[in-house]
Amino acid sequence: MTTTQLPSRRPAAPATGGTPTTTVRRKRPGRLREQLSGWGMIAPAAVLLLAFVFLPAILGFGLAFTNARLISPRPVEFVGMDNFARLFTDPTFWRALLNVSYFAVVVVPVQSALALAMALLINKKFRGVNFFRTIYFLPVVTSMVVVSLLWLFMYRKDGLINELLSTFSFGLIQGADWLNDPATAMPAIIALSIWQAAGFHMIIWLAGLQSISGELYEAAQLDGASRWHQFRYVTWPGLKHTRSLVLVTITIQALGLFDQVSVMTQGGPLDSTTTIIYEAVRSGFKQQETSYASAISLVFFVLVLLISAVQRYLTREKD
Amino acid sequence: MKNVLRLNSIGAMAVRILFAAVAAFPIVFMLVSSLKPDQQIFGDMSSVAAFLPIGNISLDNYTAVFDRVPAARFLINSVGVSAVTVVLGIFINSLCAFALSRMQVRGKRVVFTAILATLIVPFQTLALPLVWWVNQLPYFELNGFSLEISKGWLDTYQVQIIPFIANAFSIYLYHQYFESIPKELDEAARIDGAGWFKIYRQVVMPLAGPATATVAILTFLPAWNSYLWPLMVVQSEELRPVMIGIQYFFQLNVSWGEVMAYASLITVPVVVLFIAFQRSFINSIASSGVKG
């Protein structure tokens, strides 16, 4: 765009009649003004991000090595690695780490596959496409807190899920007391999480699908490629970048599991659904131990960073 | 061949309907149950009646909700907080993206990279230090003619708004969208003597409708749905948003009909808003992803 602009500007400069110095002089105040107004436009957002993202991030990093409490008359003191020493000997923390890994290992592949299937189903134009897009996206606009409450009700021993299971299996399956059994509590949370968030990742897949050129499919059809071959050799490679985006966002969201646990199980039964963030909020908010919670948050952040770096490395290697 | 194709599309449609049923059944169940007395909710559960508004239908649960919970106050709070966050968010983030994508500002690459880097920080890890930090911030209040300064933002409206105005993802979305608008338009406007702010306001923003719709929804949803943050920073009942109202139903003798009524009450406005904007929303997310 700038190259098309240059020729039109060049003839204009001599036409104003000046020697090169006048054009330079005419440009300078404009340049300076552009700098000033540019920074003026960037500043509000930049200052807010600085104050409410960068600063708390650095603060959290620092607080993790102190004994700070939310409201405390004592001065904040540096305590070194004490919080981390306590953290790594806390069995609840290890249990939380295990739970979150279990959650992520199931949710990441299942949810991304379902979201891709949904995106493929509504990618082409057909009658009612907007209806289906809206329905698929409906769980996403429903708040996770509302969803958790709703499913809490449906997961009861005498709830809708068990009634549906019983009806569809003609009475063969008698459902569990999902959220009160340590064996089924996490699977139950996994199911509702996938149900709620799949629609969001469907949109990202859809964006990727629509960026693949239709000519590629026409060429494949001319070569007599089957549906499966078209997917295998056109769609799948075409979704390379989308794939890593979806994987990274689902993984990070999975590690941050909190709302569902907070509303439905409070980490129970027997710590079977407690998560890293739930532990951080419990110690930081309920027990007011800001420093210990910051240490948990820091470990969590390192984990997120590590996993997204690994995922990025893996997806790059495949190219 | 044609028969195979038709079979294919019938099969695809069947799968689509199955997915739609799975996506919609809990929400339909919620809406329908909100109209029924508790006894009937449990009675209907074993049959298709669980999904149909039949039997003893009334709005009793809704009136009961307004008695049990200051629901009107919560709704007003949430509408206000979300609206202010959305409007300021649209303005500040688009302005920033405008300068970053269309102006020659020295150092803008570094700034843009730094902004995108904030995307990787999950909010949950920031929440606790942020609580500590906003509690240290000064609070200015104009009392008559004297300016009073007190410490701590806890338990205010601004603590629910200001930290969430600037958003890296909104800036990114606007940036991508602005890149697709020809820069010749700016040049033409400049030759006509327009300043940069005028170009932003009268040339670029009117063309960025789909991006604005997306940013509006993506700012509105977390603002309306926020739970963890107000739980931590807002104590007074009269300042609390709708999601916190759910806590009032965890007390003894919960009536599930009322729970479903309250849940419907705070869900339906979002769904209506979403349906109104859904076309431009889904399309613009889709197109932003292409370039991203």
What does this structure look like?
The complex is a heterodimer of chains A (319) and B (292). With 319 residues, chain A is mainly α. Chain A is built from 15 helices and no strands. With 292 residues, chain B is mainly alpha-helical. Helix content of chain B is 69%, strand content 4%. Chain B is flat and about 70 Å long. At the A-B interface, helix 1, helix 3, helix 5, helix 6 and helix 7 of A face helix 1, helix 4, helix 5, helix 6 and helix 10 of B.
Short summary:
The complex is a heterodimer of chains A (319) and B (292). Chain A is mostly helical.
Please write out the topology.
The complex is a heterodimer of chains A (319) and B (292).
Chain A: H1 2-9, H2 12-15, H3 20-63, H4 82-88, H5 91-121, H6 129-141, H7 144-154, H8 160-168, H9 185-210, H10 214-222, H11 227-238, H12 240-255, H13 259-264, H14 276-286, H15 290-317
Chain B: H1 2-33, H2 38-44, H3 60-68, H4 71-102, H5 108-117, H6 123-134, E1 138-143, E2 146-151, H7 158-161, H8 168-179, H9 184-191, H10 196-207, H11 209-225, H12 228-233, H13 242-245, H14 256-291
Antiparallel strand pairs in B: 1-2
What is the terminal-to-terminal distance of chain A? 31 Å
The helix content of chain A is: over 70%
Average pLDDT for all residues of chain A: 82
> Which quaternary structure do these chains form?
heterodimer
Helix/strand class of chain B: mainly alpha
- Computed over alpha carbons, the radius of gyration of chain A is 27 Å
Q: What share of the residues of chain B does DSSP label as strand, in percent?
A: under 5%
Principal-axis shape of chain B equals: flat
Structural class of chain A: mainly alpha
Number of helical segments of chain B? Answer: 14
Query: Quick one: which chains have the greatest interface?
Result: A-B, 97 and 92 residues
Amino-to-carboxy terminus distance of chain B: 39 Å
The general outline of chain A is: globular
Number of helices of chain A: 15
Which sheet architecture does the biggest sheet of chain A show? none
Fraction of residues in H or I helices of chain B: 55-70%
